[in-house]
From TrEMBL:
Species of provenance: Schumannella soli
InterPro entries: Diverse_substr_monoxygenases, Luciferase-like_dom, Luciferase-like_sf, NTA_MOA
Region Disordered: start-end pairs: 202-223
UniProt family annotation: Belongs to the NtaA/SnaA/DszA monooxygenase family.
Protein name as annotated: NtaA/DmoA family FMN-dependent monooxygenase
PANTHER family cross-referenced by the UniProt entry: ALKANESULFONATE MONOOXYGENASE-RELATED, C2H2 FINGER DOMAIN TRANSCRIPTION FACTOR (EUROFUNG)-RELATED
Keywords: Flavoprotein, FMN, Monooxygenase, Oxidoreductase
GO molecular function: monooxygenase activity; oxidoreductase activity, acting on paired donors, with incorporation or reduction of molecular oxygen
Length: 456
């Protein structure tokens, strides 16, 4: 008997303020105007994607005392955008990046539960941590949290949010004076929590959401991050987009689930991947080369190196060899990226070896290490590669990253999606009324009602 083919899951990453996005293209549009988000969301929904994904920046990054070039387009609020997108779509999920360091559990849980209700059960939260004082400068705590404690706080944060989401009974009657209906006693339970990072006595103001809880997404890759994912995450936004590396990561993280009483199908792993399509392999490769040169201009290549070397490299030619000087261990000239001096030293050594072996200039090296396109080829080839990864458990699908705002997904939806459907590994329609959890094929969340009144 032939085994049933595994289905591909896809998420759509809105092009953000990073080196992947091309702003010099004549078709590039605003990062702030709603028309950009609307077009992108409608395209993703037309392509039957599981969800739209937004990154978030809490502060404009700085480089050598000035706002970083890519941040001048703006960093609007994630929840506001997702609520607006939910209003102009019917099926696609809306997932946003929100920090567990500079937010409070009761308020963020309330905001996400509200979004889940407004969207009909389509909300998700990409849990990230923020430990540096630069981002913390926007908050009264500053850089209050030592780096080693970031996942400790995040785990306690998410556990408390789950208790709040579970604190309403499924059959609670909402108050409606006109209809003579009122909330029954005992339908909502107080949440009392005493932990290292939070001391909370709360009563959720929002009933249990349509999908039980918003979907939890996570992107950490450290041992602590992988443990956090095995404990709490339902989707991992992975950086392991190479086939063999992806299989190792997939096996490692999925192997941690059984020890936490979870099944393999309770967690999806979706690496981020860019793409370039062409009428032939040669055409796609030429397009990929042109796009890479747009993404990494000469000034961008030098700026990228300066972030790692932590020194002014403006005197160097981007078409010349790597600087011979060592990184500066002093105060960071780039604010908004957290990199240890030792990490930069190791990275520079690896880059020098690569540049020497392949005779690469500064610009060529930056393109090779920072902007390698994941899938390059015809639509049929890209679909075949996506299918190969999923069937061989190198991933459960992908977070697709285009290079144009807001049209970066158009070609993928028009050309690659039909190829996946032809292979029988991708939906041809959404199930009417399905929640994001149902579209992802994730099990219903295990309720924590028996733990709600307990002190942590």
């Amino acid at each position: 008997m032939t085994a049933e083919r595994r289905q591909v899951h896809l998420a759509a990453h809105f092009p953000g303020v990073n080196s992947t996005t091309v702003w010099s293209d004549p078709t590039a549009q605003s990062q702030v105007e709603f028309s950009s988000f609307e077009h992108f969301a409608r395209t993703a929904e037309r392509g039957f994607f599981d969800y739209l994904f937004l990154a978030e920046g809490l502060r404009l990054r700085e480089h050598r005392g000035e706002i970083h070039d890519l941040d001048v387009v703006g960093r609007p609020n994630t929840l506001g955008i997702l609520a607006a997108v939910a209003a102009v779509t019917r099926h696609i999920g809306v997932v946003g990046t929100l920090s567990s360091t500079f937010n409070e559990p009761a308020e963020l849980a309330r905001q996400l539960a509200t979004l889940d209700h407004l969207s009909g059960g389509r909300a998700g939260w990409n849990v990230v941590t923020s430990s540096d004082a630069f981002h913390g400068g926007n908050f009264r705590r500053g850089g209050f949290l030592p780096h080693p404690e970031r996942y400790e706080r995040a785990s306690e944060f998410v556990a408390l949010a789950k208790k709040l989401w579970d604190s309403w009974d499924d059959d609670a009657v909402l108050g409606d004076a006109a209809a003579g209906e009122f909330l029954r006693a005992g339908a909502v339970h107080d949440v009392r929590h005493r932990g290292k990072h939070f001391d909370v006595d709360a009563r959720s103001t929002v009933p249990r959401s349509p999908q039980g809880r918003p979907i939890i997404v996570q992107a950490g890759d450290s041992p602590d991050g992988r443990d956090f994912a095995a404990e709490h995450a339902e989707v991992i936004f992975s950086r392991h987009a190479e086939f063999d590396d992806g299989r190792r990561f997939y096996s490692d993280v999925k192997g941690r689930l059984a020890g936490r009483g979870r099944s393999e199908d309770s967690l999806l792993i979706l690496p981020a991947v860019s793409f370039v399509l062409g009428d032939s392999p040669a055409d796609a490769e030429e397009k990929a080369r042109e796009i890479s040169l747009q993404q990494i201009s000469k000034p961008t290549a030098i700026t990228f190196l300066e972030q790692v070397w932590n020194r002014d490299l403006s005197a160097y030619d981007a078409d010349g060899p790597l600087p011979e000087v060592d990184p500066d261990p002093g105060e960071q000239i780039t604010r908004g990226w957290a990199r240890a001096f030792e990490e930069n030293q190791a990275k520079i050594a690896a880059w020098r070896a690569k540049a020497d072996a392949e005779k690469l200039s500064i610009r060529q090296l930056v393109i090779a290490v920072a902007n390698r396109h994941g899938f390059v080829g015809t639509a049929a080839h890209v679909a075949s590669e996506i299918d190969r990864y999923v069937q061989n458990r190198a991933s459960d699908g992908f977070v697709v990253v285009g290079h144009l705002t807001p049209h970066g997904l158009d070609e993928f939806a028009d050309a690659v999606i039909p190829e996946l459907q032809e292979r029988g590994v991708y939906r041809t329609e959404y199930a009417e009324g399905a929640t994001l959890r149902e579209n992802l094929g994730l099990p219903a969340p295990h309720r924590l009602t028996d733990q709600i009144g307990a002190t942590a």
